[in-house]
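Figure 2 data, in text form.
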Amino acid sequence: MISEYDPNNTGQLTFSQFKTLVTTKREEERGTSDADLLDAYVALGGDEDGGGCVDAALLIQTIKEKFEMTIDIEALILEVDEDGSGEIEFDEFKELLAGATADDDEGDD
């Protein structure tokens, strides 16, 4: 992977290259890239370009019934649904899934 950023094997990277490398590696380790999130968003009714929205009720049902997760998805949705519409836009969806996979960071308010 480093060879992609240092093809001549000089042993030197710019800060920008290093930052991109670290960010990419973290996404791979988490297993969640924007492309994966977009695929999930579209599967729940969002648009392929990241537009549109996902119905919060459908998302709750999917998390609880299909994936049988025990997280407090309703509380997470309340935190990210900034306009209180009950519709989750792509940026809110990404924030929601980041919160759902974090190890209980609930005391941060």
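Caption note: The chain has six helices and two strands.
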